[in-house]
TrEMBL record:
InterPro entries in alphabetical order: Ald_DH/histidinol_DH (IPR016161), Ald_DH_C (IPR016163), Ald_DH_CS_CYS (IPR016160), Ald_DH_N (IPR016162), Aldehyde_DH_dom (IPR015590)
Coiled coil ranges: none
Keyword list, A-Z: Oxidoreductase
Name this polypeptide is given: Aldehyde Dehydrogenase
Length: 475
């Protein structure tokens, strides 16, 4: 079902030659097939958004904020329906989906409040002149968003882009297309026609949008896709914002309680079945507590597997990719003390898995796994663990569990990541924004700084005119 202003504006049929078939991650049954946007529809969406840009950019910031507040109210009203679609398409438990939608409502409300106060800066110059900067919208923003927290992540980008006066074309993940379309149907009525559009499709539609003459490309997803989008932006001149894959390390020092550290590791590795960009992907534990830590982590995983709290992965393709990494590690000498085997039965379930005997060359330690897998490597010293934690091509986040302030400060200074978390795998103050490094992306992805990413700055210098010639007064 096509979505929002693309439907109501005169234009070509949005249906492409193919469709996106979604299966239930819990049962494997086919749920529905959603049409993909045809190339003509993608081009038409860009044209519609471009036409709507001048008027939306000229809209008073407080009015843009009011529209965002209306969108937040509509989203809150539709939360239960959207959470059900989220659960159906991705397997995420309804309670967790509702929490994500609640976070999305709050994010829209926050950007609604920030819209009127996002401003430039005064500059120090000649006392008889005025120097300042003005923040202006970039234009048409294409937002390519993921499936693992689809509403919260999308609304972060949507809120910041619209608050700053850009028009938006949103392409939700092809793994949750009906949810993406429903989100568009909920939000679009809060804005003038053409300001917020939704286009459904897979990688081909995303490529067409990335190659279009737009002004911003914002992407949250895999590093491979992010690299392609960055190359496309370099050719078109679009400003690119990317939060991409991670291989986040957890460094466990010798002076912490191993049971508590194992609980933190389990939260970081198994929450949302490991399908979180900032999930714990590799663990370095000091040899002095390694045995107790591993036993406690195994118990944490076993409990989750026994009580059925590990939700399925989004689809069998993801499960196959996760199991391939686990199998490679096992073949290379690692051991699965819990999990590690494909379960019988329907759906795309994968057990919480603890691997021991891991080495730095295994894929589970070098690549993003994106599944409920906790690979453990024992280290002899904190310095050895920190050196390994600093290795690799990703730079999203890292966690340090330690009571040694010198080790903590050493890690904060050395870790080449956008976010360092100390003694808590998740959490942090609201509004935090970080810049990922390496293959994990570039640009601020959250917080007030995201408003700057969607803006371009104009410097203004106003000088006093020269004094009139003697004997001539000013008019």
């Amino acid at each position: 079902m096509p979505t929002t202003a693309i439907d109501t504006a005169a234009g070509p049929d949005t249906a492409g030659s193919g469709g996106i078939t979604i299966t239930d991650p819990r049962t494997g049954e086919v749920l529905w097939t959603v049409p993909e946007a045809a190339p003509e529809a993608v081009n038409h969406a860009v044209e519609v958004a471009r036409r709507a840009t001048p008027e939306w950019a000229a809209t008073a910031p407080e009015d843009r904020g009011a529209a965002l507040k209306a969108a937040a109210r509509a989203l809150d009203t539709a939360a239960q329906e959207l959470a059900g679609l989220n659960a159906s398409e991705t397997g995420r438990p309804v309670e967790e989906a509702l929490a994500g939608i609640g976070a999305a409502v709050s994010t829209l409300e926050q950007y609604a409040e920030l819209a009127p106060v996002h401003r430039g800066h005064s500059l120090r110059g000649n006392r008889l002149a005025a120097d300042y900067t003005v923040a202006e919208p970039r234009g048409v923003a294409v937002l390519l968003t993921p499936w693992n927290d689809p509403v919260a992540v999308a609304c972060g980008l949507i809120g910041a882009a619209l608050a700053t006066g850009n028009t938006v074309i949103h392409k939700p993940s092809e793994r949750c297309p009906r949810l993406g379309e429903a989100l568009g149907e909920v939000l679009a009525p809060a804005f003038p026609p053409g300001v917020f559009l939704t286009v459904s499709g897979g990688a081909g539609v995303g490529a067409l949008l990335s190659q279009s003459e737009v002004d911003v490309l914002a992407h949250v997803g895999s590093s491979a896709s992010g690299a392609r989008i960055a190359r496309a932006g370099a050719l078109t001149g679009a400003h690119v914002i990317r939060e991409n894959g991670g291989n986040d390390p957890l460094l466990v020092d010798r002076d912490v309680d191993p049971a508590w550290a194992a609980e933190q590791a389990a939260i970081g590795s198994f929450s949302n079945s490991g399908q979180i960009c900032t999930a714990v992907e590799r663990i370095y534990v000091h040899r002095d507590i390694a045995e107790d830590f591993t036993a406690a982590l195994r118990a944490e995983a076993a409990r989750r597997n026994a009580d059925g709290s590990v939700a399925p992965l989004v689809d069998t393709r993801m499960r196959d990719a996760v199991h391939a990494q686990v199998s490679e590690a096992l073949a290379a000498g690692a051991a699965a003390v819990e999990g590690g085997e494909l379960p019988a039965g329907p759906g795309s379930f994968y057990p919480a898995t603890v691997l021991v005997g891991c080495t730095a060359r295994m894929q589970v330690m070098t690549e993003e796994t994106f599944g409920p897998v906790a690979p453990v490597q024992v280290v002899d010293t904190f310095d050895d663990g920190l050196r390994l934690a600093c290795s690799g091509k990703y730079g999203l986040a890292a966690t340090v569990l330690s009571s040694n302030i010198a080790h903590i400060q050493q890690a904060v200074a050395a870790l080449p990541v956008g976010t360092v978390k100390v003694n808590a795998v998740f959490g942090g103050a609201p509004g935090g924004a970080a810049q990922p490094r390496g293959d994990s992306g570039a640009g601020f992805g959250y917080g007030p700084e995201l408003l700057d990413e969607f803006s371009q700055v104009k410097v203004v210098h106003i000088a006093a005119p020269p004094a009139p010639p003697a004997g001539q007064g000013r008019p």
